[in-house]
Design brief:
With 307 residues, this protein is mostly helical. It folds into three domains: 2-103, no CATH class; 122-222, no CATH class; 226-305. Helix content is 66%, strand content 0%.
Amino acid sequence: SDEDTFLSLAGRLSRFDKQISSDERKRFIELAGKDVKTVVHELFEAFDPDKIEQHAREINNVPDSRAPDNEEYEQAQKNLARKAAATFHGELNTYIDQVRRVHEQLIDVVNIDRVTFAGWDAQAKEQIKNLVQDFDTFLREHQDEIVALKIYYAQPWRRREVTFRMMNEVVDLIKRNKPNLMPLHVWQAYAQLEGADGKPTSQLTALVSLIRRMTGLDSQLTVYSSTVNVNFQEWVFAKQAGALKFNSEQMEWLRLIKDHIAASVHMQRDDLEYAPFDARGGIGRMYQLFGEDMDGILDEMNEALAA
């Protein structure tokens, strides 16, 4: 797919950037009009849901009160992809290929529409293992400075406290320092090692799944929404095992909260004032449905669904 092509190329260019000399790097800038890291960022951003939404809002003047529609989102994605692809032209592609040959890099960008992958041989498998290990090592090295990493690696019983903002801090850290280790790219590699059902929809949810796998919370690589769905079913079953029975509207709200946690890791009371909850009455309506148990329900779901 186009996404696989762009992400693979971004990862290979990141490795390429580590190998080249200062003179080769200067020549790259002359030909591309930007440095390798910028090119890598643009390739990743072409399929970054957050960047696509931001661009869709900018070019269509989408108000904060609604999300971009499918047409606006698709147009924004195409714009970002065209911008990233426009960097590559004959002279630059030839230069990259020549330098790659010198450094024996496994990269081929003669055409952005044709990125060749190393075959599934011992060397390729070892490269993927190294990529996954580099990802784990990078996160562990920063666990003392990033709260979310400290919780997952050292205090996993506190993971219900991890918020959307905390996980985004990790994504930003990777993007700034190790763009070749962006979660969706690492997920793609890891999935080749042990397989995975489905595919994460964002860098953030890919990150959560990878961390859960690397810290042993999950025995195999699992899409986070699948983990949340299973935990939700078990939680609802346990809650209704006795006299308590949720009515249809309560269940609708619980499913919305579950979906929010699957996409954003954590649910806070303030989130009830935003879509899709605001259209259904927000905090006031949830309080009418659950009464004084409302905050307890949110706390329970944050804990149970992150189990």
